[in-house]
Design a protein that fits this description.
Length: 334
Amino acid sequence: MRSVDEVTGSRRLRRMRKTDWARRLVRETELTVNDLIWPIFLIEGEDAAEDIAAMPGVQRLTVDRAVKAAEAAAKLGIPAIATFPNVAMEKRDTTGSHALDEDNLINRATKAIKAAVPEIGIITDAALDPFTDHGHDGILRDGVIVNDESVEQIARAAVGQAAAGSDIIAPSDMMDGRIGVIRDALDEAGFQDVAIMSYATKFASACYGPYREAIGTSGLLKGDKKTYYIDPANTEEALRETEADIEEGADMVMVKPGLPYLDICRRVKETFQLPTFVYQVSGEYAMIEAAAANGWIDGERVMLESLLAFKRAGCDGILTYYAPRVAEILGSGA
């Protein structure tokens, strides 16, 4: 029987795993607070917060509370927040027309946060689903989400968000051509410096349920979104979508959901070498929280491991509901 040294050629890989300092010295991937984007949910009213049952620890916030949340995020070093509104039903219609209101919930929050915390980045979504009475990301006509009319409306909403002070427009609708039309609209309105983060590969996933509860669309949706979101089975289609969005003017791209699509993260980053982000979606968050609450996993360790996996897959940043918790952990040196 050969000795271990004969088998390994005296190359013992455990040498650099023996101690904490050695493991830190050769660590290939690192998660920092600079990688974090915090998605927050908005509601009407004053000085109020609502718990979201399917997302323990996450709340919908009134604009004044959102300002305080942004202040706390900035103190933790989180670079940016992303806002998502729960719009009152009486303001929703088939075309999502309230998205064009310069005083809608997204725009009021952007103005208030920018006034109080100018140093934090604000990312807004121009998709129409929070504003439609059917829960779809575009305009519904005779049972069909009409592409071109939706794109026109989404581009107008994007200009309104930029005017309110949004730093990055992140359209999640997956309509054909929307990135190029939004870029043209922003440029024509004088917002050449406003960036676009494209939801380039948004899949028709089963992981969005808690989010839809958070923005109040879960009971509204008629049909599904498979006619415009990407089939989870398709990799090459995801790459074609990403390439098209980059050619149309996207400054950065996103993969959504996250953990089930690490292969897409890696392919997108390696193929296009553009800033690549990932959204750890509500279902991913809820699964970790539920398992942790039942004592089946160490929630904090699994959370950190999942975020590290995104970095290892090549992502430059992560949209995660865990952002403040992670920032506190990283800041404590734990």
